[in-house]
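Working notes for the structural subgroup meeting. M.R. asked for a predicted model of this chain before we commit to crystallization trials. I am recording the input and output together here so anyone reviewing the notebook later can reproduce the run.

Input as submitted:
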Amino acid sequence: MDVIVQWNDVLLEAIRKTGGAPTIISRVAAMMHIAMFEAVNVVVRKYYSYPNICLTHIHVPQYVSTEAAVSYAAYRVLLASYPAQASLIDEALRAALVLITDDQTAKDNGKALGEAIAKAVLECRANDGSSACMSYQPGNRPGDWRSTNGASAVTPEWRNVRPFAMERGNQFRPPFPGNYANQVELLRSPEYAAQLQEVQLYGNKDSKIRTADQTEIAFFWANDLDGTYKPPGHLFRMTQIVSKLRNLSLVENARLFALVAIAMADAAIVAWDAKYADNYINLWRPVSGVQLADTDGNLVTREDRSWTPLSIDPRTGVHFTPPFPAYVSGHATFGAAHAGVMRNYFGTDNVTFELDSDDPSVPYVKRRFNSFSSAALENGRSRVYLGVHYQWDADNGYDSGTKLADFVSANFLQPLDKHCEHYEAPPKGYSEPVHHDAVSAIEA
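Returned structure, recorded in token form:
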């Protein structure tokens, strides 16, 4: 396990201990992995730097431990983001430094470099809109999202957060479900009736047609509960597994994990833009759609006031639905963004791997996949089986996430070698890494 994967593991444990929304988690992950990427890249100088952070003022010592720089960069970002987990993060730093064989001068230089880069990244994101704490007033029309368990809407402000890669938050906004003109037409359509009926049948806690494998799929991808590494963490776990299978180097991991993190951070913005955008849809969850079907104006749908989704906290026995609008699925958007970056990075979709899960309903379960896209599609489909999403939430989230992944892969952290395959020109707005004569203690 190299230092990139090591700190990714620390991130996942901090997520488990802290909990919170996947939006917030994805932002922290992007900041940490950008900082680690830059800590490597200013030394090896293989790729264009991430834009919007100023590194020109940072001194890169002639002799520096790259691993120490990476560790201190990750440490400072995580500590700033999860101060309540200081003991975990402090211990992780001590453990990381013990494994570094470079001399003390190289370590000290790495510390100064890593901390300076972390400071630049944190300053870059200081006023990005993530701390706005916007209130959200649910609607009361048929089809409008409303709280299903008494919880307030989670992170509605995320639609306004400044993207990490996109030019604007609605750059990859999906079309209105079914391409209907408005919510009234949508609810009265045969497509809506079919989608609702599917969830009603497959996502019911007492479903008679859902198979054992479909039930496993539902919980395998869930990771909705605090105490798990949440959906972004699940995809980082997949990245770790594939990285190990492919025996990636420190430099390769630094870039791969940063690209994945950037894409998933913006996937959160894409999904939450669709969920909460003004004059859009803010679609109710299936539990509301089924229980209030007598109000939707559709002659085909059937009300069931006792209908309950499969989704459950096994520790309490309480069935629940995540507290934000249905359209689009965050799981599907995250999954497609991740799959697209992985596919573009490795140059193929067809990679076989086994993946485990953090969800307490499926302890010790592993599932085998033969491609990144098959995992992502199953991820999206799982939300129907769990009873918390319609299929078009998954389909259109997948499409938007795929477009985002291609955008990130084509425009960020590109090789400096202008003659490399597929390379045309430096992406607009990019600066080269800091010019210096540093020598990595790892490579010396």
